[in-house]
Amino acid sequence: ELLESLYKAEVIPPQVRDEIEKLRYARPTEPGPITEEEQKKMMEHLDELFKEGGWKDEKHP
Fold first, then answer.
1. Closest by alpha carbon to 24, among 51, 3, 52?
2. Do the beta carbons of residue 21 and residue 13 sit within 8 Å?
3. Model confidence over 26-54: pLDDT tens digits?
4. Mean pLDDT calculated for residue range 4-12
5. C-beta separation of 7 from 24 below 8 A
6. What is the Cα 4 distance to its own chain's centre?
7. Please, which residues have CB within 8 angstroms of residue 3's CB and are 6 or more apart in sequence?
8. In whole angstroms, what is the distance from residue 31 CA to residue 39 CA?
9. What is the pTM of this model?
10. For the chain, domain boundaries
11. pLDDT above 90 for 55
12. What φ, ψ does residue 33 adopt, rounded to 5°?
């Protein structure tokens, strides 16, 4: 209902609306093993986080 009311109010841009609609009807997939490419991307992302000093939150300002 919330999305429908936002659609009617034209608050959400058409491009975003299209992406939401794609996700609305997406079927869940079975989890599988992490591919080498996915592992590489995750490791690069973690390296960047550590270079930047990690996460900043209430416990670790």
1. 3
2. no
3. 778 888 899 999 999 999 998 888 886 65
4. 77
5. no
6. 22
7. 12, 20
8. 15
9. 0.37
10. 1-26
11. no
12. -70, 155
